[in-house]
Every structure is written in structure tokens, then in C-alpha cells.
Amino acid sequence: MNGVVTKNLLKSKSGEFDLESIHTVCLKEHDLSDLGCIGECSSLERLDLSYNSFTKLLRLAGLEKLQYLNLAANRITSLEGLQALDNLETLNISGNLIGGVEVLRCLTGLSKLRSLRLRDNTLGLSNPVCMNNTYVADVCAMFPDLLTLDGERVSGRGSEVFKMFKHIEDGLAARSDDVGSRNYSVESWVPDNFWEPSRKFEESIMGDAQQQLEDLLSSCTRLSNTADKKLNQLKSPS
User: Does some domain include residue 32?
Assistant: First the structure.
């Protein structure tokens, strides 16, 4: 395979026979460095490329339907190519080599982007830009529609609660500094199985179908009872 994303790899990991039919694929920890034919997966919506050695992302530009992208723990310094992902909602680039906030500038045109991760304390993943004390404020200013940053709510419902806990956490951490021991972590906002294929949609469809069937049976029962009453009325002597 020589570190290249191939058709056979994509088919085997997704279980699909055609690249155009793939909606979700996880290529985590596959020692990959070349995106190969990934751009041919025109229907791809969810992609996990974490823990590889990717540096260039230009071949992702053709994935117009992509909504969720995990690029954690690679060797990325530039995000060029991602600006074409108009449907991207969630992006994880923690554990890379993003040196400054300006590298994110190319993503500002992604109107649907709501969740961005540059740092993951629970996994020990970060970026050089995260060493800047103002990077959170800078990123939020650059992406005013962002809902979560690094797994924490920055706007929308629940954001004030997150800010309150963050304030308390920072205060506790400062006290720990006084005795020379500052060790704390932030709970991930995104669940562990976020990048794995989900059956919620199928379960929802099955639930709706079951409810429709029950409603139909109930309606048939009512019609049958009504018909029986009419027949009995016709049979009874006037």
C-alpha cells in the first residue's frame, strides 16, 4: 500500500463495492501519507484520517458532501483544500503543526462549520497555535458562528454553563500552581464514537415506520368496527 489511500483499502474499510457509494469510512492508524483516490468518494459524508502522516489536503477538495472530518494526529501545517468543503460541519485538527490562527483563514467561508478542535487535552493532542494565550478569542472572532471549540461550547445554548465551569477550573488550576502542581483536563464535547458509523438514522427510520404501521392498523380496526356496525344496522329489522 506504501502509505497511499487505494480503492481496495476504501472498499474493504467501508464494505462498499463502489467508491461513489461510500458514505462513511474510518482509516485511523493506517500509516498513510498520500490521500490517493479519496477524491473519488463523491458521496462521502464522514471521514476519519486520524493518526496517520498526512501533510497535504488538496485531494479532499472534491468531497463536496463531507460533513465530518477527523484529521487529528497528522503532520498538517496548511489547510488548503478544505475551503472547498461547503457542507463541512465538524473538523478535528488537534495534534498537528498549525502554527498560527491565520492558517485557519481559508476556512472562514465554510458557513456550516460549527465544531472545530485544535486541542484535545484528554488525548494529549495540540497545535503550536494553542500556546498563544489569546488563540481561543482569536478563533472565536474569526468564526463567529462556531458553537464548540476544543470540545467546549463557545456560543449557543449551554455556552454560559461551559464558561462558568471553565472559570472555576482555571481558578482551581491557578491554586494548584501555587504549590507547583498544575494538572487538569477538559472533558471532550464530542463522544468517543463520534467518527464511527452511527445507526441512529436507521433506528429513527425504523421507529417512524413502526409508528406509521401501528397508526395504519389502528385506522383499519376503526374502519372495520364502523363497517360491522353498518352491516348489523342493515340486517336488523326496521
Answer: yes
Please check whether residue 43 lies inside any domain of the structure. Answer: yes
| In-domain check, residue 221 | no
Domain count across the chain? 1
6 exposure class (CB count in 10 Å sphere: 0-12, 13-18, 19+) = middle
Give the CA count within 13 Å in the CB-facing half-sphere of 199.
3
Using 50, 70 and 90 to split pLDDT, how confident is the model at 159?
very low
Q: How far is it, in rounded angstroms, from Cα 157 to Cα 165? A: 15
- What is the domain extent for residue 148? 7-198
Q: What is the pLDDT of residues 91-102, one digit of tens each?
A: 999 999 999 999
Amino acid at 225: N
**Per the domain annotation, does 212 fall within a domain?**
no
